[in-house]
Design a protein that fits this description.
Blueprint lengths: L2 H6 L4 E5 L6 H11 L6 E5 L5 H15 L4 E5 L10 H9 L5 E5 L6 H4 L4 H18 L10 E5 H6 L11 H11 L4 E5 L13 H19 L29 H8 L5 E5 L5 H10 L2 E6 L11 E4 L16 E5 L8 H11 L7 E7 L4 H8 L21 H9 L3 E9 L3 H5 L3 H16 L1 H4 L2 E8 L3 H16 L2
Parallel strand pairs: 1-2, 4-6, 7-8, 7-10, 8-9, 10-11
Antiparallel strand pairs: 3-5, 4-5, 11-13, 12-13
Helix pairs in contact: 6-9, 10-11
């Protein structure tokens, strides 16, 4: 350790012997008592081996509990230059990053010149390329053993849920990325000698691949794992993203509503659909939701209201359309809500309801069940906020039994553009899914879009029966 580090920072060293057999603990205690190092050394011994990741967890917990600003991970195999540490710490001190990684790959061929075996170099580059593709990052490498973390950042990460194995380092990168934290890479020299490596390369590659695929699956709404739930409060209204650039319940509703109609958007989720109806269809739109409108969104009227409390004092008269787009699945009692909606619409018999929800019968969910999986996610069919799940038949029954008649049922393909962007891959997947929807709506529809009209009420039918009877008796 260079003396300049001690001059510039308050530094302490933690040696955490993970129940090793090489006298690390005893040797470190000798150094600790010798007083040759210009800063305090703490030497601890795990009575039971915690694994590579498990040992890191204990070290980071130590840094958090003792109020440090930064904590550095430095592999003890001699491959990394400790004299680079001041350069790695400085961006954290200056507030320019939340984590700084020493990279052996930033300088072209530098790792090979430093003695890295070619098979390790190739494996590092291939795995890092794959991880970047899965996570949407551009790191030069994911596998450096020289890292400095902001302790404030670590406090916000659920790193205690991470693996105790060697791919802990990959999982904490995923957490940093998902939390929107800043990762900075700086070049470091590479040194390889006759050190012994205890990592099974094939197993490590498989574990890393599995971790990033699971993380990407969570982003796409197919999977949920608490360790990757790191987008702290960044959802809000943005969680309900406008789906207006591809076929979705949003675009289906916009296409269905006639020009100049009066629209009540229940659960308007930021108001983006309503704003589009005003702009494209010249509609008069009233929005209702428990969260405010999105930034820059304007509707003709807006009511801040939680639909789990029913419809309250909302006046539903004189609307041509009521929108229930991806709303019903969030309600604790959909049957009571739809029945209340029907009762309030009796005075407006011509009002049409446009409703959509996820299709739990989607083939991906069936395959997951076949594999013994039923994973809720941050979005998608098994959204964590969903209270109820529907198939085409159960969604239709919900309306039929509340006095409505389903005029149209439409299957909506998966939101591949949301998952993969507007790319050839997303367009190809969408075309395939759309073709499969035509083959089997219940099996291949990601979402369901219903056009619903009111059945004549019993009161109305009884009144008509009296009127018709009187008309017949006059003959």
């Amino acid at each position: 350790m260079p003396p300049s580090l001690a001059d510039e920072y308050h530094v302490e060293v933690l040696v955490l012997d993970d129940s090793s057999q090489d006298r690390t603990f005893e040797t470190s205690r000798v150094v600790q008592r010798g007083g040759a190092v210009p800063f305090p050394i703490h030497v601890l011994l795990n009575p039971v081996n915690q694994g590579y990741g498990g040992n890191q967890k204990i070290g980071y917990r130590y840094a958090i509990d003792h109020g440090f600003d930064s904590v550095a991970l430095l592999h003890g195999d001699g491959q990394y230059a400790p004299e680079c540490l001041p350069d790695l710490v400085r961006p954290l001190r200056d507030g320019a990053a939340d984590a700084v990684f020493g990279s052996r790959m930033l300088e072209k061929s530098g790792a090979l010149r430093g003695g890295m075996p070619f098979y390790k170099f190739a494996g590092n580059r291939i795995l890092s390329w794959f991880e970047n593709r899965m996570l949407g990052t551009s790191l030069s490498e994911f596998h450096s053993g020289y890292r400095v973390y902001s302790v404030g950042a670590l406090r916000r990460l659920p790193f205690e849920f991470n693996t105790s194995d060697f791919h802990f380092d990959t999982e904490i990168i995923v957490q940093l990325v998902f939390a929107g934290m800043r990762i900075l890479e700086l070049p470091i020299p590479t040194y390889y000698g006759d050190e012994i490596c205890h990592v099974n390369g094939l197993k490590y590659a498989a574990d890393v691949t599995t971790a990033v695929v699971r993380a990407r699956s969570q982003r796409m709404g197919f999977f949920y794992d608490r360790r990757f739930d790191c987008d702290f409060g960044r959802a809000g209204v943005a969680h309900y993203e406008a789906k207006l650039n591809y076929l979705s319940p949003h675009t289906a509703a916009v296409d269905t509503v006639r020009q100049g109609a009066r629209v009540l958007d229940l659960g308007c989720a930021g108001g983006y659909v309503g704003a589009t109806l005003r702009r494209q269809r010249g509609c008069h739109v009233t929005g209702v939701d428990r969260v405010p409108l999105g930034p820059g969104v304007e509707l003709d009227a807006f009511v801040l209201w939680d639909l789990n409390d029913g419809l309250g004092a909302l006046d539903l008269r004189d609307y041509d359309y009521v929108l229930l787009l991806d709303v019903i699945e969030h309600l604790s009692s959909p049957e009571a809500f739809v029945q209340e909606l029907r009762n309030k619409l009796k005075l407006s018999p011509a009002t049409v309801v446009l409703a959509s929800t996820a299709n739990i019968g989607f083939f991906i969910n069936r395959l997951m069940l076949l594999a013994g999986q039923f994973n809720y996610g941050k979005r998608g069919i098994l959204d964590l906020t969903h209270c109820r799940l529907f198939t085409f038949s159960s969604f239709r029954r919900l309306f039929d039994q509340s006095g409505f008649r389903v005029r149209q049922m439409r299957g909506i393909p998966g939101p591949f553009a949301l998952a993969f962007g507007d790319s050839r891959l997303s367009r190809a997947l969408f075309a395939i899914n759309a073709a499969l929807v035509r083959l089997s709506r219940g099996l291949f529809s990601y979402q369901m879009f219903f056009v619903v009209e009111q059945q004549p009420s019993l009161e109305y039918l009884l009144e008509r029966a009296f009127e018709y009877s009187e008309e017949r008796t006059t003959f």
